[in-house]
Amino acid sequence: MFKKLRITILLYILLFAAVGNYLDSVRSTDWNDTLWVDVYAINGDGSETAQAYIERLSDDEFASIESYFASEARRYGVAITRPFRLELAVRLDERPPELPTAPSALGSIAWSLKMRWYAIKARRATDRPRPDIQLFALYFDPESSGTGERSTALRRGLIAVARVFASRENAGSNRVVMAHELLHTLGSTDKYSLDTNQPLYPHGYAAPEASPLLPQAKAELMAGRIPLSSSSAVIPESLSQTVIGPTTATEIRWLTVD
Length: 258
Hints:
Blueprint: H1 2-28, E1 35-43, H2 48-55, H3 63-75, E2 84-92, H4 105-124, E3 133-140, E4 152-154, E5 159-165, H5 171-185, E6 219-220, E7 226-227, E8 233-234, E9 242-243, H6 246-251
Parallel strand pairs: 1-2, 1-3, 3-5, 6-9
Antiparallel strand pairs: 4-5, 7-8
């Protein structure tokens, strides 16, 4: 009897969470209100370089992300003038849980649960109003071997993790990574090959109708790279070198396909 009661309670909890996730997903892409994004700055490698960079951060660091989304939204006739509002929340010492080294369904579920609990604790560490999206920005010394794991995001929970470099020279490409992961939380998909990192034609091309097709001048945001040839592509240096293509716009409900 007690076991059945526990199962019933668990099912109610899961149902409540599923309904909440669904409502959050729908509301986050109705574009009736600005989506508030709290950015949590984290020293990704424990370096003095990353720490010094984090201590100098302000909301101005993310202003160009806001203006980029506003400009792209206007291209698709979206009425809201400020789709996103990004603000620096708190600086965190604890790093988010690492992705499983061997991908598996069970491992992904476990990581998702850990990530959500981490996000709850981060939200409780500040007295700010609850944001629509939480963006965890891990900063790394650009002189180190790299950022390690890939950036990632959870649509269910509206959580993004961006792994970026702690330098002014990389500020522009950092914003590209952040914008890319933010759109993942709203249901947008990657538009590059997971094997080669090459943008996929046509949805991963900023100008798939161009003649000649290559090299492209810009990157589609969710492709993440500017295609130069059939086998080479470069990371854009700023959001001004990217566009949000119609497929991505459809996924986040900026564009409706009849």
